[in-house]
Amino acid sequence: MAEPIEFYFDFSSPYSYLASELIDDLAAKYGRKVKWRPMLLGVVFQKTGQPLLVNVPLKGEYSLRDFSRSARYFNVPFKFPAKFPMSTVSAARAYYWLHGQDCQKARQFAHAAFRAYWVDGRDISDLAVVQEIAAGIGIDGTALAAGIATPEIKERLKVETDTALAKGMCGAPYFVVDNEPFWGADRLPQIEKWLQTGGF
Amino acid sequence: MAEPIEFYFDFSSPYSYLASELIDDLAAKYGRKVKWRPMLLGVVFQKTGQPLLVNVPLKGEYSLRDFSRSARYFNVPFKFPAKFPMSTVSAARAYYWLHGQDCQKARQFAHAAFRAYWVDGRDISDLAVVQEIAAGIGIDGTALAAGIATPEIKERLKVETDTALAKGMCGAPYFVVDNEPFWGADRLPQIEKWLQTGGF
Fold this sequence. Notes:
Two copies of one chain form a homodimer. Chain A is α+β, with helices and mostly antiparallel strands. The first copy, chain A, has one domain: Glutaredoxin (3-Layer(aba) Sandwich), CATH 3.40.30.10. Helix content of chain A is 54%, strand content 9%. Chain A is built from ten helices and four strands; from the N terminus they run E-H-H-E-H-H-H-H-H-H-H-E-E-H. Chain A has helices at 14-20, 23-29, 42-48, 59-74, 89-99, 103-118, 127-135, 141-148, 151-166, 188-197; strands at 5-9, 34-38, 174-177, 180-183. A four-stranded mixed beta sheet of chain A has the order 2-1-3-4, with helices on both faces. In chain A, strand 3 and strand 4 (180-183) form a beta hairpin. Chain A is globular, with a radius of gyration of 16 Å. Chain A starts with a strand and ends with a helix. The interface between A and B is medium-sized, with 32 and 32 residues.
């Protein structure tokens, strides 16, 4: 079986959320799995020296319009949250803690965390909220809080973030398909053509 | 008949070139015309405070790969030129000078100028090259040189650039369809859906 698609994202990235609702089905159409890899996008901003898109003159105003319109285009529920940007350290660590035990649960959690923020506007920087989201899929919140405080999990998130950078991640979402990098939810059609044709 | 699509671009923008090869056919499918409006993208860079994409760490390397891959995706001939960025003042003025006389010729010239730079790597900042491109579609180079030196034509390019900014242009290409702005060649599918559905 062909290699899985790597999907690097930050829970605070709107285009990552949109892609998260689409990438598994797209990959499955071509017999591929997807490796979900949350990371901390702030590190990319530091490296590129780029500000948050919504803070850039002209681009900020446009992007707010584009987020919502892209969501409608992709037919994905979306509401720009009151609090933005959002610290996603706890959510990302929770993902890796769950992933060490049950990767299906981790995937479920990732969807739930994305939707909690990008549909329901919840403050996922708050550990209590992350615990509630986890509880919704049958995960014990106390065990989660203990799990994400371990050095192993902290290190895991750091390593995944460094790995994303080493693979050239310049924005989110960032996909690697057979060593070919794709940046942006708007590159999903190119990813599909790549999967269809084996590269073009 | 519905309003034409406004297409703002700079001849030095690779994604504008890609869009230039596609937008007329897309518009025609839905009974629309396209108003081509070259402008000077440097003014947008000043306003947004953004550097050239190719000079941004990580994004620069990615973008060079993405330009070529996007061209292959759209099936448009493309070769990244040796000289980049490129001053496009003469080419843009030549477009408006021609447009005042014969808008079909102006469109032909725009295609020829884009291809001269993005396929053949010619230095379109050089007036002699612009004259040669114009000669290729039957335009007298001496008349062109005189035409683009007039205050009216200089003012026209300034006004069009200011208009693009006033319409929120935050990057190139930038389209306005029934007052809805779209930035990027990668928004062509959204433009198509907009034309199909009358807005979504």
